[in-house]
Amino acid sequence: MNLGEAAQIFAFGVFAFISIAGALGMTTTMSMFRSGIFLMASFIGVAGLFILLMADLLGMLQIMMYIGGMLVMILFMVLFSNDPGGDMMASMKMPFLERFFSSGLLPQKKIHRDSHSHHNSRNNNNQADKDEGMNMGMDMSMFTSLKPYAAWIGLTVTIVFVLLFLLFPDWPVKNFIPDQDSSHRIGMLLMGKYMMAFEGAGLMILLGIYGAIYLARPGKHPDSKDRNDPSSINEEPPQAAEDPIEPFYNINLKELYEKSEDEK
Amino acid sequence: MILPINAYLIVSAVLFGIGVYAILAQRTAVMVLMGIELILNAVGLNIVVFWRYIQPENYSGQIFTIIIITIGAIEMSVGLAIMMLLYRNRKTVQVDKYQDLKG
Amino acid sequence: MILTWYSVTGLIILAAFGFILLIYAFSRKQKEWILNSSKWNNFRFSFITFALIFLSFDMEMIFMYPWAVVFADIGMKAFLDMLVFIAILSSGIAYSWGMGGLNWE
Amino acid sequence: MGIILSLAAVILLFSAGTLITILIEPMLSTTDEEGPASNSPKNNIYPVHPDSWLYNAAPAVALASMAAASVVIPIDKSLAGADIGIGLFYFIVIIDYMVLAVALGGWGSNVPESIESCYRIIAQLVAYVVPLGLAVIGPIMMAKSMSTQNIISSQSSLWYIVSQPLGFALYIITGLMQVYRAPFLEPFSNILNNGIISTYGGWRGKLWRISLSGILFIVAAMGAVLFLGGWSGPLLPGFVWMAIKTFAVLILMKWIGQRMKLLSTARMLELSWKILIPAGLLNVLIVGGLILMGVGGK
C-alpha cells in the first residue's frame, strides 16, 4: 500500500462522492439552474473516474461535452420555466434532502417582507405568473404526483444492481496496464476497423443538426410581445474611444445578409 | 489495480438508480432529459470499467463510449428543439399536461 | 504514467482551492450590501439555433482529434475520410444558414 | 518527489507570469480599460439575495481553471508541469471552466446586469469553442501528437506560423474571444457595468482580476507554443525565448483589440459561425494537403 495506491483509493472516494452527490442534488434541488450545475458536477466526477481508469481521452471528452452542453441546456431551462431561481419554491416546506441541496437559496418570503412593492413589480411584468397566480398550491411544484413510487422504484433498481455486483464478483479480471498513448490507439482504430462508426457518427451529427433546425424553425417565431424590452440589449455597442486607422474588418453582416435577400 | 471491479460498478449502479428516479419523479421535460443523460452516463462508465478490467488491450470499449456520448449530445439537441416547439404551442413544459393523445 | 500526469493537475487544483480558503480565512472586512432584484425574466434567448447546432458541432471536434493525431501516418485514406466528414458537416451549416438559423432573432 | 518539484515550479512561474501581465496591461492600453481588466470595487460588497453556493464558488472555479491550464504549458526543455499525452485537448477543455466560473458568478449574484452577462458568456462559449478546436488541429496534425513538448520539438525545422498562417489567425481571433478582451468584451462591457466584476468587491475582485489576466497570459503562452516554436531558439536559454514569444503574442492580441470596433454578441456569433468555422474547416483541409505533399509531419 504505497503512496500511489493510497492516493488512488482517495481519488476514487472523492470522485465517487462528487458524482453521487451531484446526481442527488440534481433531482432534489429547487432551483433549476442549480440542478444543471449539480448534474455537471456529477459528470465531472464520472470524468475523474474515467481518468482513474486510464481512459484520459474519454475523461476530457466527457468534461468538454458536458460543460458546453449543460450550460446550453440550462439556458433552455431558464427560458422554459418561470421560476428558475427557485425563490418561490424555496419557501415551501421540504423534506430533508431537498432542504439541504437548496439551502443556499433565499426563500421568497424574505423578499416579501423586505420590500413589498418590489415584489409586486416583479409580478405584473410576466403575464404567465398572473393567470396561474402566486398563491396556488403544489401544482407549481417540480415533482409529479407519483414521486414516492418513483423513489421506491429507483431504490429497488439500485439495490438489485448493487446486490448483483456484490454477490457475483467473478469477472475475468486481467491485470494489464493499457497503452498510455490512448489518442493514437483510438485514432488508428477509428480509421481502421471502425471506419463505418466514424462516418455513421458524422451522419448522425448531420441528422441531429437537420432535426434541430427543422423543429426549431428559426425566423418563424418572433419573440412574444409581452416580454419587456431588456435595457442592456443594443445592437451596436459604443464606438471604441479613438480609432486612428479604419479597422480592416468593417463589413456589417446584417446588411450583407439583407442585400443578398433583396436580390432573391 | 488495487480497487476491485465491483467498486466502480456499484457507483454506476447508484447513478443509474438516481437517473431512474429523476425521470419518474420530475415534472418539467428538461429535468426528464437530464435524467436520461445521467443514465447514458452511468452506462458509459460501466463500459469503460469493463474495458479497463477485462480487455485492456482492445480499445473498442472506448470507441463504444464515444459513440454513446455522441448519441447523448444529439438526443439533447433534438429533445430541446422538440421542447422549444411544445413551449411555443402550449406555453408550458409540465410533462403531465400533454395529455391530448389520451383521447 | 497517465496517473502521475493527472496527479500534478489534481495537486495544482487543490493548491488553488487551498489558496482561496486561506484568503477567505484572513479577510474580515465589514460587508456592504448592494440591493438586487432577480430579474431573470427579461432574458431573450435569441441564439436558439446557434445553441442547438453547437451541441452537434462539439461532437465533431471529438472525432477530429484522434483523426488529427494519426493523419500523418495513414495519409491519403484518412484525408478522404475527413473530406467526407467535413462535407457532411458543412452541409449541416449550409442547411441552417439557408433556413435562416444563423441570425440573432 | 518529482511531482512536488514540478508543482512548485509551475505555481511559482505562473503566478510570476500573471503578475507581469497585470503590470503590462495598463502600459499597453491607451484608453481606460473597459473589459475584464477594469478594476473592481474596493469595498467588500455582497449582493442582498445571492445564491450563496454558486456565488461563493465562482472565484474558486476561475482560479482553479487558470491554475490547471498552466500545467500543460512548457517553459523549458524539461520544465513543464506535466507533459500530458493529450496536452492540447486537455488545455481546450480546462479553459471552458473559466466560462463556467463566470456563469456561476453571474447567476449566483442575482444582480440583473450580471445575469445578463451570464447569458452573454454562454453565447460567447457557443461562438468560440468550435473555431478554436479547428485552429488547434493544424499543429496536432503536423506534430502527430497532442503533447506540447512533441509539438515544440516537431517545429525545430519550420515554425507552424509559416506553414499554416490561417490557423494562426484563427487562433488569435478565438484566443481574444476566449479571454474576453477588446473586440469581444460584450459580457464585461460598460453597458452591463463590467458584468460580474461590479458584484465582487475587495479581495474577491482582485481574485477575478488575477484569473482573467492569468487566462490571457496562458492563452498567449499556448499561442507561442503552438505557432512560434515555444522554447526552441538559437542563443538564449529556453525560458527567455518562451517569455519573448509569449509577450509578442500578448502584445499582438492587445494591438488587434485596440484596432477593431467593439463587437456585440450577435455580431460575434454571426462572425464565428459564418466566417470562422468555414475558415477552420478549410484550414484543416489545407493542412491535410500540405502534409500529403510532404511539407510537415515528418
Task: Give a written overview of the molecule.
The complex is a heterotetramer of chains A (264), B (103), C (105) and D (298). The radius of gyration of chain A is 26 Å and the shape is extended. Chain A is 64% helix and 0% strand. With 264 residues, chain A is mainly α. In chain A, helix 1 (3-28) runs antiparallel to helix 2. Among the domains of chain A are: 8-107 and 123-168, Four Helix Bundle (Hemerythrin (Met), subunit A) (Up-down Bundle), CATH 1.20.120; 180-216. Chain B is mainly α and 103 residues long. Chain B is elongated. The mean pLDDT of chain B is 85. Chain C is mostly helical and 105 residues long. Chain C has a domain at 46-105. Chain C contains three helices and one strand. The termini of chain C are far apart. The mean pLDDT of chain C is 81. By secondary structure, chain D is mainly alpha-helical. Chain D has one domain (44-292). Chain D is 67% helix and 1% strand. Chain D has helices at 2-28, 52-69, 87-108, 112-143, 148-154, 160-163, 165-179, 202-227, 238-259, 265-292; one strand spanning 45-47. The longest helix of chain D is centred in the middle third of the chain and has 32 residues, at 112-143. The two termini of chain D are 36 Å apart. Chains in contact: A-B, A-C, A-D, B-C, C-D.
Derived from helix and strand composition plus strand pairing, the structural class of chain C reads mainly alpha
Number of helices of chain D: 10
Mean pLDDT of chain C: 81
- Oligomeric status of the shown chains? heterotetramer
As for the number of domains of chain D, it is 1
* Rg measurement of chain D, Å: 19 Å
Beta-strand portion of chain D reads: under 5%
The rounded distance between the terminal residues' Cα atoms of chain D is 36 Å
The strand count of chain D comes to: 1
Condensed summary:
Chain A is mostly helical. Chain A is built from twelve helices and no strands.
Feature tags:
heterotetramer; A: 264 residues; mainly alpha; 64% helix; B: 103 residues; 3 helices
